[in-house]
Structure formats: structure tokens, C-alpha cells
Amino acid sequence: MNNHDRSKHPSLIPSGDETLTRESWKIFQIMAEFVEGFERLARIKPSVSIFGSARTPPGHPLYVFAEEVARALSESGFSVVSGGGPGIMEAVNKGAFAGPSPSVGLNIMLPHEQVSNPYQDVSLNFRHFFSRKVMFVKYASAYVVLPGGFGTLDELAEILTLIQTGKTRRIPVILVKEQFWGGLIQWLRTSLVAEGMINAADMSLFTIVDTPQQVVDTIFDFYESRGFEPSPEEREKLLEL
């Protein structure tokens, strides 16, 4: 076997002990993130996870709107959870920080863009997106998704997939600002539903609203007949998340 052939077979390429050791120890770092997250976030229920662009500047109408949404949720008794960074995340924490319920930031360490905002009663730091994602879902009574970029779309797709596949409990998923999301919703209908990639019923997994009060009302309407505590079946799902 020549060198060219050998390069196609990673198992034949020697791996240094140092690299293997670093990979093994990484497991403990990941475990530590999960343990700290579970211990600190289990006490903030009920909570609402809110997402949106990191690039929305203070004073922008969406920034002000996000503050209002978070403040309304905080005053309604919900802990408010954001990604802890700038933009809409900062606005969310700022609005919640001004209210009576905890303002929570799940901060991610990035090479650029993510700087923790100062409006956090509870602040956690993550190196890994996947462990952070679990924390957004595990204790959330609702997901509120404001306009944002790839990260926001990622979190939206994550929760919809988990609910659709039965890997987590059904919770309200609320898209805010119909004008922003309208094109995506139309594409879901004309492409994904039309091609059989998702069921027409999957379009009911989310709701679109335009005002802070509608956000609050949608959540309370969902839980009106059942309360916020997960059922035994839902607890089992969350345990296996």
C-alpha cells in the first residue's frame, strides 16, 4: 500500500497518545457543563427560553420589543432564559432583570460576537453548543423565537424536531413578528408539506404572534387546563432527552 492509499484509511494513521488523552478528558468537561446546568436550572421553573439575533443594536425597535416581551413574562411569573449575549439576547435579559423573576443567561464561548451581557441573575458558561441546547429545552415551559439568524433558526429547528419526534414534551413554540417569519412559513407549506417532508399537522407545532401580550396569553392558554408541571410521562421524556 503506497502513501496515497494509506491516507484513505484513518485507522492506519498513527494517533498520538497526547491527542487521545485530551479527547478522553474532554468527556469530564462536558459532564461538568451538564451537572452545573442541571443543578442551577432545576430551580428556575417555570421558565421561558427566548431567542433572537445577536446583531440587533440597543434602541432598535426589535430590541425594545424583546425587552417588553421579557418584562411581561417576568411579571407573569416566568424565569426568562436567553443565550446571554448581545443584541436581542441582551434585551431579553435586560427586560427580565427589571422584573421580579430570574433573568438567566446560557452563555457560549465563541471566537467572536458573543460577549456576555450584564443583566443576568443566573449566568452559566458553555464551551459546547450541544450541552447548552439541552439546557434551553429541558426546563422550558415555552420557546419564544424573535427575528434572528442561523443560530436562531438552529434553535427553532431543534425544538420542532424534538417535539415532532416525541423526544421532548409538547410546549408552546411562539414565533414573533409575522412579517419576518411569513416567507419561511410559506416555504414550509409549499415545499416541505407539499413534498411530504413534513405532515400538514406539523404546522400546528408553532404559533405566530405580533405583540408581547399575545406571547403571554398564548402560553397561559396552552397550560390553562393542565398546569405547568410536566406529567409523569413528560418527566420521563425529559429525563431521556
Molecular structure report:
The chain is an alpha/beta fold and 241 residues long. The chain has one domain (47-239): Rossmann fold (3-Layer(aba) Sandwich), CATH 3.40.50. It contains nine helices and seven strands. It has a seven-stranded parallel beta sheet with strand order 4-3-2-1-5-6-7, sandwiched between helices. The longest helix is centred in the first third of the chain and has 25 residues, at 17-41. The model has no long low-confidence stretch (mean pLDDT 91).
List keywords for this structure.
241 residues, alpha/beta, Rossmann fold, 7-stranded parallel sheet, 9 helices, 48% helix
Mean pLDDT: 91
Spell the H/E element sequence: HHEHEHEEHEHEHEHH
Question: What's the CATH architecture?
Answer: 3-Layer(aba) Sandwich
Shape: globular
Q: How do the strands of the widest beta sheet line up side by side?
A: 4-3-2-1-5-6-7
Structural class: alpha/beta
- Strand share of the residues? 5-15%
CATH C-level: Alpha Beta
Q: What's the number of extended β-strand segments?
A: 7
Uncertain residue ranges = none
